[in-house]
Amino acid sequence: MLLPYFDLWGPGVGVVVACSLYVLVLYFYDSYGIRKYPGPFTAKFSYAWIIWVGITGRRSQKIHDAHNRYGPIIRISPCEISFSDPAVYPVIHSFNSKAAKSSFYDSFGAIGLRNVFTTRSKTDHGQKRRLLQSLFTVQVAREFTPRTSSIMTRLIDKWESRYISSKTGFIWFDCAPWITLLAFDFIGEFIFGESFGMIESGLDSVTVPNDLQFPFVIGKATDVQHCQVQTMSLTHLVSMRERYNYPLGLLPKWWRPVGRRVLRKEVQAAKTFSAFVAYRFAQRLSTTAPHSQDTRDLVGRFLHKSKVQNEEFKPESLVADLITILVAGSDTTRNSLIAALHYLAKSQNAQHDLQAELDSHMISHVTNYTDIEGLPYLNACLNETLRLYSPVGIGLPRTVPHPGMSISGAWVAGGTTVGVPIYTVHRNEALWGEHPEEFRPGRWLQGDGAQGLDADALKAFSDGPMRCIGRHLALAQLRVMIASIFIRFDVALEDPENPLHIEEWFVRKATKCRIGLRRRRALSPDISAGIH
Length: 532
Ligand code: HEM
Description:
Layout: H1 2-29, H2 48-55, H3 59-70, E1 73-77, E2 80-83, H4 88-92, H5 104-107, H6 122-133, H7 138-163, E3 171-174, H8 176-192, H9 198-201, E4 205-209, E5 229-233, H10 234-250, H11 256-262, H12 264-287, H13 298-308, H14 315-346, H15 348-360, H16 369-373, H17 376-388, E6 398-399, E7 404-407, E8 410-413, E9 417-419, H18 422-425, H19 429-432, H20 471-488, E10 489-493, E11 501-504, E12 508-512, E13 514-519, H21 525-530
Parallel strand pairs: 2-9
Antiparallel strand pairs: 1-2, 3-13, 4-5, 6-9, 7-8, 10-13, 11-12
Helix pairs in contact: 2-3, 7-8, 7-20, 8-14, 10-12, 12-14, 14-17, 14-20
Keywords: Heme, Iron, Membrane, Metal-binding, Monooxygenase, Oxidoreductase, Transmembrane, Transmembrane helix
Cofactor: heme
Pathway: Secondary metabolite biosynthesis
């Protein structure tokens, strides 16, 4: 009887000794010399803490709490330190490389191709970004607003027909699923020149090819009609993709093969999502030959630009970028708009001030973007939403160049991963004034003792050469979306005491937001007459 017992003891003790040695080596080896910095105990010798905070869905909040507890420079993994000082933000975002060790930039891409987001070195990234950047100018964003406006009208008509049954009471519903459809329709229109028709159908279904090898045979775009397809939920595909990319990005490189085995379903969904984007791309090409002058959408503008600049057109590379643009451009906007609705519904004073501003400009319907682009209170509400909510809240990891440098008074060795959490910067009292945790659009305006804030202090879109490429587009569409809703409706929260429920992966996601809508009665007769 004792024999099998002792048989298990041997390997068991071996595993414990090996793990202890591994921990001790990591602790004492300390190749980046960062053991001296305070932080959660397990982060000194393992990735356990950062993985744990990552999977709690509250990473930004927990790192913020750790800064409050341990100080402005903390160690959050054996190779990463986090700074809370906002002055460090521009310093580290001028570095040449996005970080590779235990980082999102290295785990992305079920299709094995780097895109503009996952390309890490500044030189390669610059090359990739050069052409794309010219397709995301302020001008492009402005020109696109009539189409955002018309998608908004579709959503508002749906809400009117479903939820506005009386002129007096509020009708309560969860706006989050609708705003998901809106964000997908918008990005479909922007990239492929036509929306996915989701608001119309009330469903988030898309057509996906059965053969996942298909995307990389884009040369056969003309065969797209003969492709076997099935219908799937785009929300499901996007969230499964993130459930693969995000946890994998938390793991050190050598653990990732294990992660891929565990997350088989998620890997499959990520591949299916890539196939879906390639399929839509092939459909789009089948209507317009490459290198034509059709610039109605991002694909068309890309083809046109690459022809003008004499760049070689690599379909796989463009599809890899479209995959990231589709996700980056829908998820962030969705969550920002839900947050704006939540905060403005909660702060009825702010909502009245916004409506008063819209009314005073006799805006009845957003037909002309220039009517709203410069409205101070609308912009203050938008900035305050992006500050307080900030769809990306983490410290985006960057690698310190060799041999190292002094950052915020601390010597940091070359190769160390560093980050400044956006969530924490956006709650810095010295920067934003009193009660940074409260939604107060007034802090962005001058007058009544307020100085007015500098929009550059806002890091929602990050900073430096790798900052968000879609920021002009995002700001323009959010202005149109917020104005369109508050011109038309009074908005209230079903339970004003409940905070917005957020689940954080790479992006902080608002999981639900129950609001009430009431058609506005306070509109002046002139404005009411303009509403149809
Ligand atoms: C409120 C809306 C948005 C927010 C808060 C936001 C935020 C961000 C942030 C923080 C980054 C930097 C990531 C990093 O350095 O690792 C980023 C990058 C990026 N964003 Fe956005 N984004 C928004 C909307 C959009 C839109 C509408 C698009 C496109 C349609 C877009 C496309 C991209 C792309 C392609 C990158 C990668 C840029 C690069 O690495 O050069 N984003 N975004």
